[in-house]
Amino acid sequence: MNPDKAKLAHERNESLACQLCGKMVKGFVIDSRPIDGGNGVRRRRKCESCGRRWTTYEFTAQMFNEHPAITEVINDAKTFLKQALDKLDKVTGHTG
């Protein structure tokens, strides 16, 4: 992820749940740095509520889509859902 895009994502100031106390907070970013050759960002965050710190990792969608294990899981899920829908159609008599 390009550092400019990462900065823009952070500037959206989205709320997230603190991984330690569970409260919805703005998750103040203490430190951000690119990882994995610029395909992701590592962020150190501090909860405004409990004051504790944690790390988040953000990656581009392209990185996940190209990973063989992710592709295999997605294809397996598609096959499973198609089979389940076909069975449901047979049971309900729906032809769609």
Q: Would you give an account of this structure?
A:
The protein has helices at 3-11, 61-66, 68-92; strands spanning 16-17, 24-25, 28-35, 40-46, 53-59. The model is unreliable at 1-10 (pLDDT under 50). With 96 residues, it is an alpha+beta fold. The longest helix is centred in the C-terminal third of the chain and has 25 residues, at 68-92. It is elongated. The strands form 2 sheets. It has a 3-stranded antiparallel sheet with strand order 3-4-5. A two-stranded antiparallel sheet has the order 1-2. It folds into 2 domains: 1-59, Single Sheet (N-terminal domain of TfIIb), CATH 2.20.25; 61-96.
Q: List low-pLDDT spans.
A: 1-10
Series of secondary-structure elements, N-terminal to C-terminal: HEEEEEHH
- Fraction in helix: 40-55%
Assembly classification = single chain
Give the biggest beta sheet: 3 strands, antiparallel
CA-based gyration radius: 20 Å
- Proportion of residues in extended strands: 25-35%
Quick check: average pLDDT? 77
Q: What's the overall geometry?
A: elongated
Query: In CATH's first tier, which class of the largest domain applies?
Result: Mainly Beta
State the secondary-structure class: alpha+beta
The CATH architecture classification of the largest domain is: Single Sheet
Question: Reading side by side through the largest sheet, how are the strands ordered?
Answer: 3-4-5
Q: How many separate domains make up the residues?
A: 2
End-to-end distance: 41 Å
- Tell how many strands the DSSP assignment holds: 5
DSSP helical segment count: 3
CATH topology of the largest domain: N-terminal domain of TfIIb
